[in-house]
Structures are given as structure tokens and as C-alpha cells.
Request: fold
Amino acid sequence: MQKTIERIVKPLDRFIMTVGQIGSWALISVITIVMLDVITRRFFTLGSVMLQELEWHFHAIAFLLCASWTYLNDGHVRVDIVYAKMTARAKAWVDLLGGLVFTIPFCLTMIVLGSVFVEDSYSMHEVSDAPGGLPYRFAIKMFFPLGFLLLLIQGISATLKNLLFLKTGQTLEKPA
Reply:
């Protein structure tokens, strides 16, 4: 059982780590675009709807590509005041049940709904409502189901790791 779970989990975790590290570079774009927007507004009294939309586009990309990486590194929000006092076994049960009852079903739902969201946007050739805004609104919307697919992958990995811990008492190391 341990070897099987390990063969499944390790490549998934490496993949999520790689995508998260790539996604984190979108924050450099956010910072650069915000600085450019502030400088052009302040010193040249030029405003750009396109720059403002690019800011939230890259912010969304960073968030959606890095949420699963945060989950991998146990950086997600939880009620630590209760969770911190639990035994390792109780934590594994909470995480296992949370994955099976909440994370995995929610991600599957968001992938399906998000795909419809993207398909509708693409089929109607949706563009920004704002004058001077960005075209191809479906392009940013594609990151919504993608982000939840990544979160689903990490949810499956975490669930398998918790199952392994409950069965054998062994934990798997995070990828370096």
C-alpha cells in the first residue's frame, strides 16, 4: 500500500510544486504592472483600463496557480485553535474527511461549472465591458477551472497521504 500511494503522490506533489513556482512569477508581473500604472497616472496623468485589467488578470493567475501549492505546503487557512491541540491521528482524520467530503467534491463542481463559464465566454467572444479593456475574456477565465483542477490534484494527494498515515503511521516527505 505504501509503495502504491508513494508512486501516485510523489509525481503529483512535484507537479504541483512546479506549477506553483511558475505561477508565483505572475506576482512579478502584478508588481510591474501596478508600478507602471501608478507612475503613468501620477506623473503623466495617463490612465489605462487595460493596465488595471492586466493587474487583476495576473493576480488571478498567481492565486489560481498557487492555491494548490499552498495546500501542498500546509499553508491553507483552518481553525488552528482547535486543530493545533489535536493528535496527529485526529488531524489525519480531519484532513482525510475534509478532503473526501469538502475539497474533492467542491473542486469537481468548480471544474464543471468553471468549464461552462469558459465555454460561454469563448462562444460569445466576450470582451471587457470597459472602453479600452482587454479582449478575449475567456483566456483569463480558463484559469478558473485550471486552478481548481490543480487543487483537486493536490486534494487527492493529501487525502492519499492521510490515508497512508492512518493505515501505517508513516508520512511522506514533501518534494524538495
